[in-house]
Amino acid sequence: MYILFSLLGLLAVGGILFISFAPQFGAAAQGQSLERLQKSPQYRDGKFHNTSPTPMMDESPLLDKVKIFAKFLGGVEGSSPTDPLPMATLTKEDFLSDTSTTPKITWFGHSAVLLELDGKRIFADPMLGQRASPVSFIGSKRFSDQLPIKIEDLPPLDVVLLSHDHYDHLDHGTIKKLKEKTKHFFVPLGVAAHLVKWGVAPEKITELDWWETASYEGIFLAAAPARHFSGRSLTDRDRTLWCSWVLKGAQHSIYFGGDSGYDTHFKQIGEKYGPFDLTLLECGQYNEAWKYIHMMPEQTAQAFLDLKGKVLMPTHWGAFSLALHHWKEPIERLTKAAARQNIPVATPIIGQRWQVGRELPARPWWQPLN
Question: 31, 160, 232, 290: which one has the fewest Cβ atoms less than 10 Å from its Cβ?
């Protein structure tokens, strides 16, 4: 018994030390950044809050949590594809040789999207790692072993845009490889501390609260509300802010939703900044147990209408299994809901670079796959 308790104690101490010192967990805000976030209308009692009450799964009855955990352990049939997903390959020259200013979009799976607006390259939530996890051997593995282009081969980036600090949106390894080829980072309050710890120069980072705005070489940016949460360890829940983003160029506007449960903020954003030529909204990794922080696909369609969108491109699917549904279920439910309301939906394959305002990439490429 003494040996058992000693081993458990050593494991506990080792875990605490690992979380405290491993760089992938990031860092807590300090100095002026901490003072600024503490003045945010969203911040009270030591953490950020959503506008509407947002119950979390860990507040559910114990039996419900046990059932969900058991389902995760048992797995869900079809949660990951057995067939390889179609993918377009890219080279750096594909981007550098194109001098047109027509907005273009390239999806890297999940929520990682490379936007080209008025000649600027903006990478939103560039999670390009193989696992949505702080370690390489635990957590959901990316459906595809390869990316459309190696991180090292990406062209220079003007902006990296982050919606929040969860592992499926903010990846330590990816940022380490992008920091030298990225001119500026725009992030919600508190997230800068992670980037600084990973070697990003503080002067290259701008932190924004909800409804605050900035500009970058002619591009207008606004951090807008979302209904979600944050955290990278067991002790930092909601210590950083989460947000969505509004981007406006000379003639086109784009909305990037990040992660969010459905709420009234979509209508508020649509009234203030809509209409949007392209609306990027999550449609996957949902469950009734966490319905307040992730939308059901039918709610995604309604959020698009609230935002006054012109074209909907679904994200947060096609790369990782982070919920208890079939991997194709999100896009199937969304496309059906969109069809009922005559919503134009763009469904490019991973790596497909397409132009906003041209013919939509709308082939149901997922249908024949298992």
Answer: 31
